[in-house]
Amino acid sequence: MSPLARPDIRAPGAIDAVWLTAVLQAGGVDAVVADFTARPIGTGQIGDSFRFNLTYERGGDGSPASLVGKFPAAGEESRQTGVALGNYVREVRFYQHLAPTALVSTPRCLFTDVDEATSDFVLMMEDLAPAKPGDQLAGVTLDQARRVVAQAARLHASHWGDDGLEDLPWVSGTRASPPSSATTEMIAELWRGFKDRYGPRLKPDWVRAGDWLSTRFAELGEAGDHPRCLTHCDFRPDNMMFASARGGRPVTVLDWQSVAYGVGATDVAYFLAGALTPEVRRAHEAELLTLYLDTLTGLGVRGYGMDALKRRYARGGYLLFSTAFFAAMIVTQTGRGDRMFLQMIEGASNHLWDHGVIG
């Protein structure tokens, strides 16, 4: 078996034992793969993931039983969305340049690369099993929510007020990044399409929230004089792994396709509004916000208080709501996707109404 000097970018169907050996070598694992099996995993809307179970010609200490790889979506509509929004380039660059300093728990990356001309990419990571993927539809326990909020604070503290991010064109919201394709006109059009598609399944309060929000998307997203930091921008259970009864890390954050220089409180609202029932969120919101702020302070963030956090947290549900109808109309439609997007709409609407944001 001839060695491969360095892994290249290839589709799942083109992967062989030589390539997997090169991936391990690139990640510092001195082993030779003899054979493997591959199967799809996860519920990603814009990227496809596979687990590669490995057998070795020569293994050794640190040789993993399996790896997880992420690739462009096979569905053409979803793939084109990932290309148009820069999601594939953004995630690869995050792992190459920001993951080591982000403080948040992420998978160990053995190899990743992207062709910016075509947006073809590959991302090979450790397999986090026996941890289990989160499920937006099932939500999370209160203990899991506490752990996630602490991880949010770690992520945000890592580059709090770091204007060095402004020079990175692949981080959304920086001065070097291209203008967002999500114009006010586009958002309004997507919301109209969403109402047409899902009309009978939408509650009146959801429609009123969407009608109000869809004309104010840009305004709601402005940071103003609020401190900015590195943000995830799709901070929900489907993009996380949680410890199971068999073990695994308490929580690991995945899917860095939307990473931005933005307002950290929006990530917190996005998660709590979508991952907890309204009753649990209302009962424990104050505790969870205090945990977030205390963790930020413990990591060295100064001059940021509860009043400022509450103001931006209150309106943060706008991103969960808009992501749901935006994504529903631009990715390949699935039954689970429909249920998930409607659940996100409901949670975000409840959050916005609870905090008196909608005029």
Explain what this protein looks like in three dimensions.
The protein has 2 domains: 12-126, Phosphorylase Kinase, domain 1 (2-Layer Sandwich); 132-354, Aminoglycoside 3'-phosphotransferase, Chain: A, domain 2 (Alpha-Beta Complex), CATH 3.90.1200. It has 12 helices and 10 strands. It has helices at residues 17-26, 76-84, 87-98, 142-158, 184-198, 204-213, 217-221, 264-275, 278-298, 306-315, 317-330, 335-354, and strands at 32-41, 47-58, 66-72, 109-114, 121-126, 132-133, 229-231, 240-244, 247-253, 260-262. The longest helix has 21 residues, at 278-298. The mean pLDDT is 94.
- Poorly predicted regions: none
Which oligomeric form is depicted?
single chain
Q: Decide which structural class fits the backbone.
A: alpha+beta
Q: What does the average pLDDT come to?
A: 94
Alpha-carbon Rg, integer:
20 Å
CATH architecture call of the largest domain = Alpha-Beta Complex
Task: Record keyword descriptors for this entry.
single chain, 359 residues, alpha+beta, Phosphorylase Kinase, domain 1, Aminoglycoside 3'-phosphotransferase, Chain: A, domain 2, 2 domains, five-stranded antiparallel β-sheet, three-stranded antiparallel β-sheet, 12 helices, 43% helix, globular
